[in-house]
Design a protein that fits this description.
Blueprint lengths: L1 H25 L5 H21 L7 H17 L5 E4 L5 E4 L1 H6 L16 H13 L3 E7 L5 E10 L11 E8 L1 H36 L6 H33 L8 E3 H18 L3 E5 L5 E3 L2 H18 L5 E9 L8 E8 L21 H6 L6 H11 L3 E7 L3 E9 L3 H9 L1
Parallel strand pairs: 7-9
Antiparallel strand pairs: 1-2, 1-5, 3-4, 4-5, 6-8, 9-10, 10-12, 11-12
The structure holds adenosine-5'-triphosphate (ATP) and magnesium ion (MG).
Length: about 425
């Protein structure tokens, strides 16, 4: 093949030279200089063609094993499961992703031993009959529920082991996370509509009462207007929370670059929320010495502290105290130091089964009681997204009857950035 390529390079150069010579002769411009130049061009064309080709052309004896190992390496690196079977659905080749998904899969064994899916097996027969590719679905329930789209196609193998018979290749594409996302989106829309509809229904009810039976009742009017105002505020808050959630999500992949002092942010929030906490009989204190520089967005970090303090005061008021503290942990490697913001209360705590779900949108341990307290169930979801954007981690620890501690672990700002923070 290398020799063939070299020959065709020479031929092409020669044909081009002769053709150009013909054109020059027709126009009367054929002279000695032209002939010399075309001779050089012919030689160069041939040499370049001959030099360029061997780099991609393999010697015949090396070609087959090398290509085979390239194909194997390629197959091994495909992250989705790929299975090759012959026309009797006997497994010929599988990649590691397929082995991981179907541990019972063995070369030279029928595919049906490992993949009990009539749709897929029928699909193989159909592809062999029609020669056309098709897609079908494969779902598993054990160990977890997963769904795959299986693309089945005929693979002609003229010099394969089956004597030229086409084999069949199966590509499996994991649809599990896409489906979960879709379910979450549907749930989210349903939850958001439900949360909005409740105050809206109450508003409409009061409007009708005020237009009808309570038209001339001044005291009822005052009372109803008060409730309507609360409901309208609730709707506004819900919409604000939804909007800020989507804004944060939109920027989640862009980590903040400005250095801010988390100590100052915590101090500001403790000062603002102190009076409200006192009204509920809660002593709100801050434990923080010095500066705690993080790469962050000030407004977003204010929301983190606000939400955590609000929760601790709202749900842990029976403990009578809430402590906001800041600390630095040096981390396991240089440059990995973290600033730890902790909000601790001595309230009733949270049962362990709820803890993993608290950061889901609209998730509340006690929906009625949270709603009474004006909660929408979006607070911790917002906190989680902000902490993610700051490349940090949120840890919730709670012991029933002892209290709850929520920690946000944020990477410390690099030393070079600290100068900026003092100037801020
Ligand atoms: N410190 C805490 N002690 C006990 N329960 C808590 C605490 N913090 C949160 N929770 C529980 O977690 C749930 C979710 O909290 P989250 O902040 O996401 O929503 P919310 O407070 O109900 O509403 P929002 O924050 O929008 O006002 C709360 O409804 C509450 O049941
Ligand atoms: Mg909250």
């Amino acid at each position: 093949m290398a020799r063939g390529a070299r020959r065709s390079a020479w031929t092409a150069a020669a044909v081009a030279t002769v053709a150009l010579g013909g054109v020059a002769w027709l126009h009367g411009t054929l002279d000695g200089t032209w002939l010399a130049a075309s001779g050089v061009a012919l030689a160069l064309g041939g040499v370049i063609g001959a030099l360029g080709q061997p780099r991609i052309v393999l010697a015949p004896e090396a070609q087959s094993p090398t290509r085979h190992s390239i194909a194997e390496a390629l197959l091994a690196n495909i992250p989705d499961p790929v299975i090759l079977v012959d026309r009797r659905a006997i497994v010929i080749e599988v990649n590691p992703a397929a082995r991981a998904l179907l541990p019972a899969l063995k070369v030279r064994h029928p595919l049906s031993f490992a993949l009990r899916a009539p749709d897929v097996l029928d699909g193989i027969e159909e592809v062999l009959r029609s020669g056309l590719p098709l897609k079908t679905l494969y779902t598993t329930r054990v160990p977890t529920e997963r769904a795959f789209e299986v693309q089945i196609g005929a693979l002609p193998m003229p010099d394969g082991p089956g004597g030229g018979q086409p084999n069949v290749v199966l590509f499996l594409r994991d649809l599990t996370s896409a489906r979960r996302l879709e379910a979450m989106r549907v749930d989210f829309v349903a939850n958001a509509s439900h949360e909005l509809r409740t105050p809206l229904a109450s508003l409409l009810g009061f409007i009708e009462t005020l237009q009808g039976p309570a038209r001339n009742d001044a005291s009822a009017r005052e009372r109803f207007l008060g409730i309507m105002k609360t409901q309208a505020h609730r709707m506004t808050r819900l919409i604000d929370d939804l909007l800020s959630l989507s804004r944060i999500e939109l920027r989640e992949h862009v980590a903040p670059t400005k250095t801010v002092d988390l100590g100052r942010i915590a101090r500001q929030m403790v000062d603002t929320q102190g009076p409200l906490a006192r009204e509920r009989g809660v002593a709100l204190t801050l434990e923080a010495e010095g500066a705690f520089p993080v790469l962050g967005e000030r407004d977003e970090l204010l929301r983190v502290v606000e939400n955590l303090v609000e929760n601790a005061v709202k749900y842990g008021s029976s403990g009578g105290m809430v402590v906001v503290s800041l600390a630095r942990s040096s981390g396991d490697a240089p440059g990995k130091a973290r600033i730890i913001l902790a909000v601790r209360d001595a309230g009733p705590g949270i049962a362990p089964e709820h803890i993993p779900r608290l950061t889901e949108r609209f998730y509340r341990v006690d929906v009625a009681s949270s709603r009474d307290k004006g909660g929408t169930g979006l607070g911790l979801a917002i906190v989680k997204h902000i902490v993610n954007r700051h490349r940090g981690k949120l840890v919730i620890e709670s012991t029933p009857d002892v209290g709850t501690t929520v920690r946000a672990l944020l990477p410390e700002a690099p030393v070079a950035q600290k100068v900026e923070s003092t100037a801020e």
